[in-house]
């Protein structure tokens, strides 16, 4: 599929005090998951003969080196580029003993994300930079430029800084990095994204708040999902859980929304934490493929176990250890198969976390798919890190429990390379959270953390809540 072609105009340099112009031509074609890139160079510098190096920057990180042969100032290269992330980011530097010129091109799907073609080139050599550039003739540009539908921004072509082949690949990469990731630019981005984050938080807590919980989504025609006014999908667990996990929800709203989610979505009798309620059935809103499932099956209002684990995580973050432990036990498959009748109802293995559990009235409590769900790793993470509290941060071991106050003690054996850490947590004060003492090998650690060491030793840690 043809994507783009354009003449490269006004590429200049000075040699022996004489201005010399060159031109080029780029053509890009799409072939399934690859781009076909053709670059043609034509210069009036007929003395340019031999092989020149072309640097391709792919997917913003990978680099590939190609050779282009120039004969009397002319040459071309044909390259097929495989894309993993459906993104093409090419910054070409064509050089030999001295830089001829460079081409910078960004292609993201069908959108161009570089600057304006008419922007003054800031990276010309001193001689070229001293002379103002002339914009390409609009008529000529119109004749020589064909852009596919959907491309919104023009491509920027600019000369590259002086570089020598002898400097090697690292120098070129460093020059590129200094341009793309300058400290000032990164600081500007940090400020920008902080502003965006604060705006999103404000919108979440105003326009996204529905009085008792957070809304889930808005359709293209303006219908709200996860709203108290919704006929179906009145409340959704993901919005409530992630208002806590992300830290974006305001304090009072987080607690209120999680309590409402528990009231509507936690079915203690049938041991289910539903994704949302009520399920989509005969309402006018069409949310997409999930409505193709019968009500209460998989994503359509059943227990979708990813969301259930996030719900438990959010309860632990809020410090509700009793609820976090209770809900972790609810979705544990062993607790769905304690009796013969329960096993017949669940119909899955008792040692495999299911991807979903049905809330449909005719199949209530039946397990759906299993053996491949990523929710099992989320469940493991939630239990180990957020309930038992074993966390590794920057090489340090922390114990930050959020447990049932009925738990009096528990033990963890953690192996770090050749070292072993025997951890015993005591909760004689019937607390949900909080560490009073952190004792390592009979010495109290005031920082309540220990640096992990690969020394083959056995270490004993005692935690007093």
Provide keyphrases for this structure.
465 residues; 10 helices; disordered N terminus; alpha+beta; single chain; 25% helix
Question: Could you describe the 3D structure shown?
Answer:
- There is one protein chain.
- It is globular, with a radius of gyration of 31 Å.
- 31% of the residues are buried.
- Helix 5 runs antiparallel to helix 6 and helix 7 packs parallel to helix 10.
- Strand 13 (266-267) and strand 14 (272-273) form a beta hairpin.
- It has helices at 126-129, 138-144, 168-180, 183-206, 237-245, 251-265, 305-317, 321-331, 340-346, 375-387; strands spanning 2-15, 18-31, 34-43, 50-58, 62-70, 74-82, 87-95, 99-108, 145-147, 217-218, 224-225, 235-236, 266-267, 272-273, 276-277, 303-304, 356-357, 390-393, 396-399, 409-416, 419-426, 437-440, 443-444, 450-451, 458-464.
- Strands 6-3-2-1-9 form a 5-stranded antiparallel beta sheet. A 5-stranded mixed beta sheet has the order 20-21-25-22-23, with no helix packed on it.
- It is α+β, with helices and mostly antiparallel strands and 465 residues long.
Runs in which pLDDT lies below 50 for 5 or more consecutive residues are 1-15, 54-63, 83-171
The dominant shape is globular
Task: Report the sheet with the most strands, covering strand number, pairing sense and barrel closure.
Answer: 5 strands, antiparallel
Strand count = 25
Give the strand content: 25-35%
The level of helicity is 10-25%
Mean pLDDT: 75
């Amino acid at each position: 599929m043809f994507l783009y072609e354009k003449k490269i105009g006004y590429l200049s340099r000075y040699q022996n005090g004489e201005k010399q112009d060159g031109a080029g031509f780029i053509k890009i074609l799409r072939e399934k998951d690859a781009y076909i890139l053709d670059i043609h160079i034509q210069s009036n510098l007929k003395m340019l003969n031999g092989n020149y190096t072309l640097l391709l920057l792919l997917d913003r990180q990978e680099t590939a080196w190609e050779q282009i042969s120039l004969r009397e100032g002319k040459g071309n290269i044909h390259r097929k580029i495989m894309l993993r992330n459906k993104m093409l980011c090419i910054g070409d530097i064509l050089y030999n003993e001295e830089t001829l010129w460079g081409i910078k091109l960004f292609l993201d799907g069908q959108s161009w994300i570089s600057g304006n073609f008419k922007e003054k080139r800031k990276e010309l050599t001193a001689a070229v930079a001293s002379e103002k550039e002339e914009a390409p003739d609009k008529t000529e540009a119109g004749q020589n430029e064909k852009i596919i539908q959907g491309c919104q921004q023009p491509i920027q072509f600019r000369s590259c800084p002086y570089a020598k082949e002898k400097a090697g690949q690292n120098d070129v990469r460093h020059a590129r990095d200094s341009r793309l990731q300058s400290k000032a630019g990164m600081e500007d981005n940090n400020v920008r994204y902080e502003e965006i984050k604060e705006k999103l938080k404000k919108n979440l807590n105003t326009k996204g708040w529905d009085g008792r919980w957070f809304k889930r989504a808005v359709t293209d025609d303006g219908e709200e999902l996860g709203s108290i006014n919704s006929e179906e999908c009145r409340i959704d667990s993901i919005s409530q859980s992630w208002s806590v996990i992300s830290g974006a929800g305001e304090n009072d709203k987080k607690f209120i929304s999680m309590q409402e989610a528990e009231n509507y979505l936690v079915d203690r009798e049938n041991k289910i934490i539903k994704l949302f309620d009520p399920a989509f059935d005969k309402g006018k809103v069409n949310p997409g493929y999930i409505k193709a499932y019968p009500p209460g099956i998989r994503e359509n209002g059943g227990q979708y176990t990813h969301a259930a684990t996030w719900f438990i995580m959010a309860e632990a973050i809020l410090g509700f250890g009793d609820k976090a432990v209770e809900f972790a036990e609810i979705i544990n498959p062993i607790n769905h198969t304690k009796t013969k009748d329960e096993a017949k109802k669940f119909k899955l293995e008792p040692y495999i976390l299911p991807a979903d559990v049905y809330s449909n009235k005719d199949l209530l409590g039946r397990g759906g798919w299993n053996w491949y769900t990523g929710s099992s790793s989320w469940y493991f993470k939630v239990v180990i890190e957020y309930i038992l509290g074993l966390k590794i941060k920057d090489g340090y071991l922390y114990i930050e429990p959020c447990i049932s106050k009925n738990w009096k003690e528990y033990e963890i054996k953690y192996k770090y390379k050749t070292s072993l850490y025997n951890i015993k947590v005591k909760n004689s004060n019937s607390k949900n959270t909080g560490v009073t003492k952190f004792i390592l090998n009979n010495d109290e650690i005031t920082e309540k953390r220990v640096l992990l060491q690969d020394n083959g030793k056995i270490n004993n840690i005692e935690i007093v809540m």
